[in-house]
UniProtKB/TrEMBL annotation:
The keyword Transmembrane helix applies. The chain crosses the membrane at residues 20-39. InterPro entries: Beta_propeller_containing. This is Uncharacterized protein. Pfam families: Beta_propel (PF09826). Keywords: Membrane, Transmembrane, Transmembrane helix. It comes from candidate division WWE3 bacterium CG_4_8_14_3_um_filter_42_11. It comes from the Bacteria.
């Protein structure tokens, strides 16, 4: 059908006596599309796996180069809906639920034992800590006869979103609507970030009736997600930048860098300098991704942070490592041919995985790899015995069947491919995934709900251990 329409168009061009150069160009386009269609038929996956194990991410040499990087990222950003830029949150937050089993008191539903996730309600068995509108309540929970609210922490200029508890330290994470006045700004400059301020407040709750604010940090950008490992809270924030002034020229100065402020100080300062900003390769977003390690036992200790130009879609954290996954959609033909490309699958997917080691508040980049397909959420990723496992979907489902399929990839500690399963459930996509030790579980869906059990005991030879098809679909496995 595609070839018939394209051929018809060429014949119409001949009948209207179009210039020879246009006809030759049309013939070239026709040949290119035909070649791509054959290639796509023979190569249904999104691309080959690539591993780069450099010790450091590349950095920018100057603020001018950083500004140019933001400009280039805006050009490289994917376009949808006839060219309208689709700006997504940096990291998708998975909604937490309460109670994973039947302990003496309920806890937050976490993915990895020892890696806590923030929630709106926390309990240590004796006390409840509850986020309620613009307050955080501390209440006695046990014994039930003594249950009562002991104190209320009012967040006057912000909105609390989630909390952690670490012994007698309460961590409150939230956002503020205040904007940052850029240093040295003029009428000619136009800085558009659209960023909130994210805050982290640490309270000493040794006296539950009189919590004391011990430290307050404010970061420019939107809070995405966090993890608490040991005595550190690791925050992930996204800061969008638009680096043009009113004359259409790129601005190059430290106003581009995400800012932060410590409690007791009036002015915001850059998290780092331009030459310390790292970049993902490829850079496909003008959003800065900041990973900040906040110490919870020493209120005066340094807050370490890594800031990278380039967004991420999903995050997974083990006790020792943090993985940021970012899906890249590569256009198959230049955008000048968009109208012709309406007949083709417009994009192929590849997910880039960036590994960071977490060690007592230190954040160290380990390497990068890429796998075909896109990732559903954090539960599609896992680390076990030093190997990283990831479940992806390639292509899309459609009424006529579509070209979707699903894959499992196992990468070693250096992010080199160890084993894989490809082509799972053709024509369907992953709706939920869970890795548990030597086993993995997938639910895919289109018309029925196939449930797959994966044997991952041999990282070099993963295989499907069994499957069951039932009506409906499931979007969560536990």
């Amino acid at each position: 059908m595609i070839f018939q329409k394209l051929t018809k168009g060429l014949k119409q061009g001949l009948s209207h006596h179009l210039p020879l150069s246009i006809l030759l160009f049309s013939l070239l386009v026709f040949t290119t599309i035909a070649s791509l269609l054959v290639w796509q038929k023979l190569n249904p996956q999104g691309g080959d796996l690539v591993a780069q194990n450099q010790e450091q991410l590349p950095t920018f040499s100057s603020c001018a180069e950083l500004a140019q990087g933001i400009k280039d990222a805006a050009k490289n950003q994917n376009y949808y809906d006839q060219g309208i830029l689709n700006i997504l949150p940096t990291v998708q937050k998975t909604t937490t639920e309460t109670g994973t089993s039947q302990p003496e008191f309920s806890t937050t539903n976490i993915q990895v034992e020892g890696v806590d996730e923030a929630d709106i309600v926390k309990s240590d068995g004796t006390y409840f800590y509850i986020v309620k509108e613009n307050e955080v309540l501390i209440a006695r929970a046990y014994p039930p006869t003594d249950a009562k609210v002991l104190s209320r922490i009012s967040i006057k200029d912000g909105t609390p979103k989630e909390i952690f508890i670490n012994d007698d330290v309460l961590v409150v994470i939230g956002y503020k609507s205040a904007a940052i006045e850029e240093k040295g700004s003029t009428d000619q400059e136009y800085w558009y970030g659209g960023n909130n301020l994210s805050f982290v407040d640490l309270y000493d709750t040794n006296d539950k009736g009189k919590p004391i604010l011990a430290r307050s940090l404010e970061f420019e950008g939107s809070y995405d997600t966090s993890r608490m490992i040991g005595n550190y809270a690791y925050l992930v924030l996204g800061t969008y930048r638009y680096a043009y002034n009113n004359t259409g020229e790129v601005e190059g100065n430290e106003n581009l860098i995400p800012q932060y402020r410590e409690s007791g100080t009036d002015e915001f300062t850059p998290i780092c300098n331009c030459a310390q900003i790292k970049k993902f390769d490829p850079i496909e977003s003008s959003t800065f991704l900041t990973i900040a390690a906040v110490p919870l036992k020493d209120f005066e200790a340094k807050v370490n942070a890594e800031t990278i130009l380039g967004a991420g879609d999903n995050l997974y954290a083990s006790l020792d490592n943090l993985y940021v996954a970012n899906t890249s959609y590569s256009s198959e033909i230049p955008t000048i041919l968009n109208k012709i490309l309406d007949y083709l699958k417009p994009e192929t997917e590849k997910t880039y995985i960036y590994k960071f080691n977490l060690d007592q508040g230190e954040i160290n980049y380990q390497g990068m790899s890429a796998v075909p397909g896109y990732v559903l959420n954090q539960f599609s990723m896992d680390e076990y015995q030093g190997n990283f496992r990831i479940a992806t979907t390639v292509g899309q489902i459609a009424r006529g069947g579509g070209n979707a399929s699903n894959n499992i990839y196992i990468l070693d500690k250096n992010l080199d491919l160890t084993g894989k399963i490809e082509g799972i459930a053709p024509g369907e996509k992953i709706y939920s995934a869970r890795f548990m030790g030597k086993k993995g579980y997938l639910v895919t869906f289109k018309k029925v709900d196939p449930f797959f059990t994966l044997d991952l005991s041999d990282p070099q030879n993963p295989k499907i251990a069994g499957q069951l098809k039932i009506p409906g679909y499931s979007d969560y496995l536990h």
